[in-house]
Amino acid sequence: LAASSAFAAPTRTVEKRDTTISCGAFGSLQTGGYTVYHNNWGASHATSGSQCTYFKSLSGSSVSWSTSWSWAGAPIQVKSYSNVALENVGKQLSSVSSIPSVWKWSQTSSGTPIADVSYDLWLAPTKGGANAYEIMVWLGSFGGAGPISETGDTPLATVTIGGASYKLYTGMNTNVRVYSFVAAKNNQNFNGDLNLFFKYLTSSQGVPSSYWITSLQAGTEPFTGSKVVLTTSAYSISV
């Protein structure tokens, strides 16, 4: 990751109200109960590139933010995950009735990037314990990006949740079981209940309802691309 500090920052016209969170390896900003993270965790895989993340505004419980990036090399490796997170949730799945969320986003780029735009939801067997499950909900997939999968391009199942169709994949990320719901078509205006994904997993895939929600995140995973800007104009979530 240290090599990323030598990369030139991508060209971006920043609006006056934008606050730069970071153009380095990591950074964060807390606002309205959320944490906006700049997280170039996979930058060491890149042959060149950089990324910056910005806070734009907070209106009530809705946060607006953006991230701009250019990455080259290792097209199957994720370079970063800039995101907005609701941390330290500390609620057991069995006690949660709904997780309403709104996410309005747009993406511009030079050419076709390889990237996803996704929720990243985490579960642990005990309150405050280490995460054992990672549940991703891909609202956007670009350039042939694909999730962790034990079955390659063949999904575990095709399911309809909240009126939308998703292909479900699963695989291991070290010692964490990952379930990825990939939307059949990109959804830039999500307004739904994330608890429906948990309910499906507890009823159909053996995820224990006794597990605890640790963190709920929403952001983008870049693989490769040039002059890409993901803008979230409105984001909110509650448990």
Automatic annotation (TrEMBL):
Keywords: Carbohydrate metabolism, Glycosidase, Hydrolase, Lectin, Polysaccharide degradation. InterPro entries: ConA-like_dom_sf (IPR013320), GH11/12 (IPR013319), GH12 (IPR002594). One of its GO terms (molecular function) is cellulase activity. GO terms for biological process: polysaccharide catabolic process. Belongs to the glycosyl hydrolase 12 (cellulase H) family. This is Concanavalin A-like lectin/glucanase.
